[in-house]
């Protein structure tokens, strides 16, 4: 029985071009499913693959999902001129996608169609289309079949509010304790001569194992200066020995030079390391690649920083596929256990047993680096707009924010101060997650002494204001610049922080 007004028996006359398309892409059911995978892939990858950003533009500031899809919809209309992408047809299309993905057992066949569509629509260079679809297809199909994305929501996203309501990331709230909030206390300067702790802040190192001097820094791929980038035109210089001002990451020797030169800036009492270790070649990364980056750079940090304790946070590039961090209820081969277990093993010299326990569960932890100070490392991938696993359920993934409330309340009860570290800044998160985090910061403003994030690759800060008047600043989050040059950035020496010993 036809659904949403789309009848398979009374479609428009089929042109020779359409019949040729069927021959090229396969049966209609595979066409719809392949299109679904190509669209979801386009949603998941733009920040990483820089599909629509000019080479000189910085790709990381967040853009809304509708804006990302506008380019794809335009390409669809240009490529498939016979489509009249009306609201009823859109809903029929996504009904077919949902039905087809639940009935088609062969993920590889769906991926084959998605590759052809990716190339046809010029979503990415052909080799990137091939590798990216093959890398993402298993997880994407799994997410799609388990998600609550309805045809109305998908078409509201594609065509606007007149065709449906895009709100699969519905509102939710964590619970705050009944304990009354203490009166706000303005920060007071430390007493003269108070002891000072020095903290090194590392973020976004992005080591490219395949960096190769002399290669093309402006290749067609999303990441250049590497094996496979080819040689530059004779009139243009190739990638430099230490790095390049282009869409390139860093060779190991540059990171070694950076870390080995930290001595004069020290000594440091501890290190905050807020993630993103691997390179931006996200269309071709394997789990082995990610684990090699994790262990190599962890060993490098330990080599040059010696006995100084290092407190890491999980970046969005640590996993593969990129941004893919399923909540703990996803089990089996799709889970993130392979990554969290490797992190626990690599970081065991720095973290106590309880921190390792929660790291293995959800990639977050808390510890006390010294009396009076509690450090909380959040897995900000559970707030990410690019984490496609949250299409299944985005309500406080892993219960992390509720756990954060418990940690902050316990710290308040003890009279401790708290530092929070993470990768993605809270202002770049899903709306409901970001709002709940804002509420938590406002409630525990007296306890929360600092927040430290990375991800944007530039030197920034985010200011939090009181909920009542939105005029009284109550907290600030510091966003450190990247070590990598990606994209066309100046590599920076890691900033250091000075923290007084007076925490009460």
TrEMBL record:
Alphabetized InterPro entries for the sequence: ASMase/PPN1_MPP (IPR041805), Calcineurin-like_PHP (IPR004843), Metallo-depent_PP-like (IPR029052), Saposin-like (IPR011001), SaposinB_dom (IPR008139), Sphingomy_PDE (IPR011160)
Localization per record: Lipid droplet; Lysosome; Secreted, Extracellular space
Cysteine pairs bridged by disulfides in the record: 87-163, 90-155, 118-129, 219-224, 225-248, 383-429
Catalytic activity, as annotated: N-(octadecanoyl)-sphing-4-enine-1-phosphocholine + H2O = N-octadecanoylsphing-4-enine + phosphocholine + H(+); a sphingomyelin + H2O = phosphocholine + an N-acylsphing-4-enine + H(+); 1,2-dihexadecanoyl-sn-glycero-3-phosphocholine + H2O = 1,2-dihexadecanoyl-sn-glycerol + phosphocholine + H(+); a 1,2-diacyl-sn-glycero-3-phosphocholine + H2O = phosphocholine + a 1,2-diacyl-sn-glycerol + H(+)
EC number per UniProt: 3.1.4.12, 3.1.4.3
UniProt: Zn(2+) 2 binding residues: 276, 316, 423, 455
GO biological process, any: sphingomyelin catabolic process
Protein name (Swiss-Prot/TrEMBL): Sphingomyelin phosphodiesterase
């Amino acid at each position: 029985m036809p659904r949403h007004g789309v009848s398979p028996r009374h479609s428009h006359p089929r042109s020779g071009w359409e019949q040729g398309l069927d021959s090229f892409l396969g049966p209609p059911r595979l066409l719809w499913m392949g299109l679904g995978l190509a669209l979801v892939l386009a949603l998941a990858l733009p920040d990483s693959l820089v599909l629509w950003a000019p080479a000189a533009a910085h790709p990381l500031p967040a853009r809304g999902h509708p804006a990302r899809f506008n380019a794809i919809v335009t390409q669809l209309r240009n490529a498939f001129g016979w489509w009249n992408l009306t609201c009823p047809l859109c809903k029929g299309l996504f009904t077919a996608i949902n039905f087809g993905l639940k009935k088609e057992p062969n993920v590889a066949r769906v991926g084959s169609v998605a590759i052809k569509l990716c190339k046809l629509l010029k979503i990415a260079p052909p080799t990137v289309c091939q590798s990216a679809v093959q890398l993402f297809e298993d997880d994407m199909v799994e997410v799609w079949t388990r998600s609550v994305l309805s045809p109305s929501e998908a078409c509201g996203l594609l065509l606007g509010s007149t065709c449906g309501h895009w709100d699969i990331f519905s509102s939710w709230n964590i619970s705050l304790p009944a304990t009354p909030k203490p009166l706000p206390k303005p920060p007071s300067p430390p007493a003269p001569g108070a002891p000072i702790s020095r903290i090194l802040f590392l973020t976004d190192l992005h080591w490219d194992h395949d960096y190769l001097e002399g290669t093309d820094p402006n290749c067609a791929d999303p990441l250049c200066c590497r094996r496979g980038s080819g040689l530059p035109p004779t009139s243009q210089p190739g990638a430099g020995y230490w790095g390049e001002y282009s869409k390139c990451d860093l060779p190991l020797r540059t990171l070694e030079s950076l870390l080995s030169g930290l001595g004069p800036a020290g000594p440091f009492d501890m290190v905050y390391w807020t993630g993103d270790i691997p390179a931006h070649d996200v269309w071709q990364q394997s789990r082995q690649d990610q684990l090699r980056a994790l262990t190599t750079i962890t060993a490098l940090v330990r080599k040059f920083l010696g006995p100084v304790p290092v407190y890491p946070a999980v970046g969005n590039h640590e996993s593969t596929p990129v941004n893919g961090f399923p909540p703990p209820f996803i089990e089996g081969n799709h889970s993130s256990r392979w990554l969290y277990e490797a992190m626990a093993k690599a970081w065991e010299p720095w973290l106590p047993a309880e921190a390792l326990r929660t790291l293995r569960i959800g990639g977050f932890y808390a510890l006390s680096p010294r009396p009076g100070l509690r450090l909380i490392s959040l897995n900000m991938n559970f707030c990410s707009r690019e984490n496609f696993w949250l299409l299944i359920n985005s309500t406080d993934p892993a219960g992390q924010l509720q756990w954060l409330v418990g940690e902050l309340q316990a710290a308040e009860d003890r009279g401790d101060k708290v530092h929070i570290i993470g990768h993605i800044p809270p202002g770049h998160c899903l709306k409901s997650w970001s709002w709940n985090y804002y509420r938590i910061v406002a409630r525990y403003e007296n306890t929360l002494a600092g927040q430290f994030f990375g991800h944007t690759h530039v030197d920034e800060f985010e200011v939090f204001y009181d909920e009542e008047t939105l005029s009284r600043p109550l907290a600030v989050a510091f966003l450190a610049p990247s070590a990598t040059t990606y994209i066309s950035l100046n590599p920076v020496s890691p900033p250091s922080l000075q923290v007084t010993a007076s925490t009460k």
